[in-house]
Structures are given as structure tokens and as C-alpha cells.
Specification:
The chain is of the alpha+beta class. The protein has one domain. The protein contains 2 helices and 3 strands, in the order E-E-H-E-H. Strands 2-1-3 form a 3-stranded antiparallel sheet. The longest helix has 16 residues. The radius of gyration is 15 Å and the shape is elongated.
């Protein structure tokens, strides 16, 4: 499965094909990538779909509960 990471510099990196997230994380560390968030291709597809739909129409917006304000 292909893994991606959000680096501490705000950029996304493609970590390549790995058997599991532990191997992907180790690859990131070995390549001096300071991974903040690691995700696989299925999660990436979900985000792409949501962002694409959101850019083309009104998306659900976060509304904090009154007790959070």
C-alpha cells in the first residue's frame, strides 16, 4: 500500500509502497522526514474526494457547540 506523510514543514510527501504503517514510518525517519501525520492511499483518496467535492460546492462547515465558544 502507498503511504504519504505530512511533514513538519507543511508539505506532503509520498513515502512509497510499504507493507504497513510501521515500515512507512521507519522509511520516513531514515530519510530525515519529520512526519506529523502518516496516512495510506485509502485515506488519501477519501481526503481527495472530500476536498474536490468541497471546492465544487458548499461543504459542511465546522460549527463549535455553544459551550466551546
Amino acid at each position: 500500500m502507498i503511504y504519504f506523510t505530512l511533514n513538519n514543514d507543511g508539505l506532503l510527501y509520498n513515502l512509497g509502497n510499504h507493507e504497513n504503517w510501521e515500515n512507512a514510518e521507519e522509511y520516513a525517519q531514515d530519510n530525515n522526514i519529520d512526519s506529523i501525520w502518516l496516512f495510506n492511499e485509502d485515506e488519501a483518496k477519501n481526503w481527495v474526494e472530500f476536498i474536490h467535492e468541497s471546492l465544487n460546492k458548499d461543504c459542511p462547515k465546522f460549527e463549535p457547540a455553544k459551550e466551546e465558544i
